[in-house]
């Protein structure tokens, strides 16, 4: 197993949403494919926290089901994640926890807004980012509250 494979598995840990069981996952209960992907962790497996074992096992299962293209994308995401500062990674983790605590409708609304934002051309995205950065915290909160209660139409660009 190469370093890129391990890196991709680690990326799956960071982006996974699995919750651990109290007892963890025994090495012998892993499938052959999972053990192959996680082989470099075999010696230290029993020392890992139960939550991490569960996340690694599920990550290895997802990894095994990925196409070559999906694995390449996962490696790229992990490289980007790895390049972030600890401070930035912690902020992202905090925001992910907040997102997980939202209602499914609210999560869907945020995903929809993000997709719409990504579809805008680069200049328009920059304009919106600059405008948002210039806002005071109070203005930002009013904007969020307003968008929550009165979503914008999607045909604007």
Task: Describe the structure concisely.
With 157 residues, the chain is mainly α. The chain has 8 helices and no strands.
Please, could you describe this protein's structure?
This protein is mainly alpha-helical. About 70% of the residues lie in helices and about 0% in strands. The chain has eight helices and no strands. The radius of gyration is 20 Å and the shape is elongated. It starts with a helix and ends in an 8-residue tail after the last helix.
Assembly context of the chains = single chain
* Spatial extent as radius of gyration: 20 Å
In DSSP terms, counting alpha (H) and pi (I) runs of 4 or more, how many helices?
A: 8
> What count of structural domains?
2
Q: Which structural class best describes the helix and strand composition?
A: mainly alpha
Topology pattern, helix = H, strand = E: HHHHHHHH
Provide the helix percentage: 55-70%
Number of strands: 0
Dominant shape: elongated
Please outline the major beta sheet.
none
What keyword list fits this structure?
157 residues, mainly alpha, 2 domains, 68% helix, elongated
Walk me through the topology.
Blueprint: H1 3-15, H2 32-37, H3 50-64, H4 68-83, H5 86-100, H6 104-119, H7 122-134, H8 137-149
